[in-house]
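In the current project phase, we have settled on a layout for protein records. One protein thus recorded is set out beneath this paragraph:
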Amino acid sequence: MSKLTVRKTDVDFAGETSTNFARWKSIVGAAFPPLRMSLPGSKGFRGHVRAAGSNQLLMSHISSSAHIIERRPDLISKNDGGYLKLSLHLTGTSLMVQDGREVVLQPGDMTLYDTSRPYSMVHEEDFSFLVAMFPADVIRCVAPDAQSFAGLKIDGTTGLGAMVASYMHGLIKNLDELNGPTGERLSRIGLDLIGTLLADKLDALPQQGASVQLRQIYRYIEDHLPEPDLTPSSIAAAHFISIRHLHSLFRTEGHTVAAWIRTRRLEHCRQDLGDPLLAAQSVSEIAARWGFLDAGHFSKTFRQAFGVPPSSLRRSMR
């Protein structure tokens, strides 16, 4: 289960080019998977970055002078976590390229980019944007093929795009809340909104039958996680397919059906254990809500996934 570790950054840069740009690369490099950054000219460099993150969502507000950002193949490794970034352009005009797609971004435009594959962003003038970065796995339950939308433009001024944009603006204005006791809940709301937006946009794209079926199965699993008898057999039966076909759909996902069910249940338990509104509920009650009826088995499985017993994690999150 991927987690973000960068907590909070608030740094201004202005003045001599080489020194400030070197510092800029260092700070931005600590917040995001490795990037190559270069300047198109020799003018003085200015920049400002604010960032804060929960375990699964990093929100950033970036503004700076013109420069070029590249996520090159030699910078990509399996240890980077497989993050997605959803950006909302605020000022300036930029060019984003990924998977052979080129999109010109202007104020109000949103786009998705996948850090597991190369991309580049060219800013030829002063610019600013908001970025929501999160592990791809956290929205897989509603948009398992979200990466296929990378490099396409989303209107951030209407419909679901406007709702997500409003959320991003609100959270950036109150970044301290993301690090506070309600940070997990705020992240969950944001990720639900982002996942819904991407799922809606993906539904409008031409899809292969397997992709549509896989998305339906992920959603079914998410809706039925509280049921203790949720199994590959019951999932296959609900979708009128064989268990063998179900396993073949998941083979390219990097996990089995049973492992995914366990992962999603554990993640919901982890979130609820850190939710101050559920502090009166016992660990076993929370576990049972997500299909873990054997308290001993749950504690062992939780510790294997997160490295600590559920009660210890609960105390640390408080």
Q: What stands out?
A: The first helix runs from residue 17 to 31. The radius of gyration is 21 Å.
